[in-house]
Specification:
The chain has a domain at 42-192. The protein is 58% helix and 4% strand. It starts with 5 loop residues before the first helix and ends in a 24-residue tail after the last helix. Strands 1-2 form a two-stranded parallel ribbon. Helix 2 (49-55) crosses helix 5, helix 3 runs antiparallel to helix 5 and helix 5 crosses helix 6 (181-192). It contains 6 helices and 2 strands, in the order H-E-H-H-H-H-E-H. It is mostly helical and 216 residues long.
Length: 216
């Protein structure tokens, strides 16, 4: 899954193209003297973009909804897997004098069910991943716009992505104070209007039986 800051790059390219088109004269004009390049103070912002997208309230809500959607399918696949496992154990427990025909029929049934299980599991996984990609893309586009708006409003001159499934990060070192990941998450949560998900229920503590006191 390609989850990089494509939106921000595309947006910057689109804005640059739009600006050039808007500034272009209707008729060709004589080229103006080229201005000497000037150095400007750099203010670099760092963002773990993929993590930011899924950490927003909207991102968490989208993932939770997709997981809930696929809970029935997961239960059905678990049931199929348990059935195949049970049938395999039954074949293994057959007595040695079981007729070959009966053994072959049982193995054929297991093979058919295994293939159906594999097919259903692959279909469910592909659908699940597709839904995740669609949900991620919708939120990522909006978070990307928020990120660009945030760094522009706060005077940054460069935004670098250090998150995601990149083969190699383009950043070798950065000051932690330049990381705007959480700031962008907070800013997007404000404008998205999506409430924070409720905290997960605590796992009940396991009760242990105290060891008997040693006999005197």
């Amino acid at each position: 899954m390609k989850r990089t800051l494509v939106f921000a790059t595309a947006l910057a390219a689109g804005l640059a193209t739009s600006t050039l088109l808007a500034q272009a004269p209707a008729t060709p004009a004589a080229p103006a003297p080229a201005a000497a390049p000037q150095a400007i103070p750099a203010k670099v912002a760092i963002i773990a973009f993929e993590q930011a997208v899924v950490a927003t309230n909207e991102g968490q809500k989208a993932v939770a909804e997709i997981q809930k959607k696929y809970e029935p399918k997961k239960s059905a696949i678990d049931t199929q897997a348990a059935e195949v496992d049970s049938l395999q154990k039954q074949v293994q427990a057959l007595p040695a004098n079981t007729p070959d025909e009966e053994r072959a029929n049982r193995l054929k049934t297991i093979d058919t069910k295994q293939k159906a299980l594999q097919r259903d599991a692959e279909d469910a996984q592909n659908s699940y991943q597709s839904d995740l990609q669609d949900a991620y893309g919708k939120v990522a586009q909006k978070v990307g716009a928020t990120a660009v708006k945030y760094v522009e409003a706060n005077g940054f001159t460069l935004l670098l992505n250090v998150g995601g499934q990149q083969a190699a990060s383009p950043v070798l070192w950065f000051a932690q104070t330049t990381d705007v990941t959480q700031a962008v998450i907070n800013e997007y949560n404000k404008v998205s209007g999506v409430a924070a998900p409720p905290p997960a229920a605590p796992t009940p503590a396991r009760r242990t039986t105290p060891a008997p006191a040693p006999k005197p």
